[in-house]
């Protein structure tokens, strides 16, 4: 219960920070079954003048001028199993490394501000997944550490699944709104 409360408070703090501050992040995925690079299309609301410092999400790695987030692996944890002891739904856990590129204040929870997880199992509406409890106690102390310029800190995050068959799309965003790209993760 205490672990769930800590995760909820942390997620709330990060979302508040993300809505009031500007920043970017980067990410890499080893277990990425089919990743795509998002290319802004003219007239889609995205900045059509992508420069060398424009954020990218390719092969599971989100790179921005301020940080880099690299997904190193993912796994499904059923309710009641280690890493999801307090959950009532299965979760997908993403393990990742966050590197501070620019020296701007950042921590491993920047993941929440830069990614949205979806499970496309509803024909009528987008199914955005909820953040679950921290799936690995090793990161309990380090998940909110401020990362020094050039430093890298490992962490993990979990999203509650609605089923165990539909792949999860991890969408990298620029400030929670503009999509940069996505990677799909199989659950089996």
What does this structure look like?
- The chain has 188 residues and is mainly beta.
- The chain has a single domain (2-39, 53-185), classed as Sandwich (Immunoglobulin-like), CATH 2.60.40.1240.
- It contains 2 helices and 9 strands, in the order H-E-E-E-E-E-H-E-E-E-E.
- The chain has helices at residues 2-20, 110-114; strands at residues 34-37, 56-58, 61-63, 67-77, 91-100, 115-119, 152-160, 168-174, 178-185.
- A 5-stranded antiparallel sheet has the order 2-3-4-5-7. A 4-stranded antiparallel sheet has the order 1-9-8-6.
- It is globular and about 40 Å long.
- The two termini are 28 Å apart.
Topology:
Elements: H1 2-20, E1 34-37, E2 56-58, E3 61-63, E4 67-77, E5 91-100, H2 110-114, E6 115-119, E7 152-160, E8 168-174, E9 178-185
Give the structural class. mainly beta
What is the CATH T-level topology?
Immunoglobulin-like
> How large is the share of residues in beta strands?
25-35%
Helix fraction, binned, reads: 10-25%
What is the overall shape? globular
Tally the beta strands.
9
The stretches of 5 or more residues where confidence is low (pLDDT under 50) are: 1-49
Distance between the termini: 28 Å
CATH architecture: Sandwich
Rg calc: 16 Å
The CATH C-level class name: Mainly Beta
Helices and strands, in order, run as HEEEEEHEEEE
Mean pLDDT: 79
Annotation keywords:
disordered N terminus, globular, mainly beta, 13% helix, Immunoglobulin-like, 188 residues
């Amino acid at each position: 219960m205490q672990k769930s409360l800590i995760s909820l408070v942390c997620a709330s703090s990060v979302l508040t920070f993300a809505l009031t501050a500007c920043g970017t992040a980067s990410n890499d995925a080893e277990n990425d079954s089919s990743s795509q690079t998002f290319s802004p299309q003219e007239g889609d609301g995205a900045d059509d003048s992508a420069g060398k410092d424009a954020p990218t999400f390719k092969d599971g790695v989100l790179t921005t001028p301020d940080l880099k987030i690299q997904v190193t692996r993912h796994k499904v944890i059923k309710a009641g199993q280690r890493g999801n002891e307090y959950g009532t739904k299965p979760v997908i856990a993403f393990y990742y490394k966050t590197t501070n590129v620019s020296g701007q204040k950042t921590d491993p929870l920047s993941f929440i501000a830069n990614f949205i997880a979806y499970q496309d199992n509803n024909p009528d509406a987008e199914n955005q997944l909820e953040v679950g409890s921290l799936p690995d106690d090793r990161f309990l102390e380090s998940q909110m550490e401020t990362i020094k310029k050039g430093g890298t800190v490992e962490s993990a995050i979990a999203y509650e699944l609605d089923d165990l068959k539909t792949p999860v799309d991890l969408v990298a965003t620029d400030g929670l709104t503009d999509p940069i790209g996505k990677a799909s993760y199989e659950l089996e």
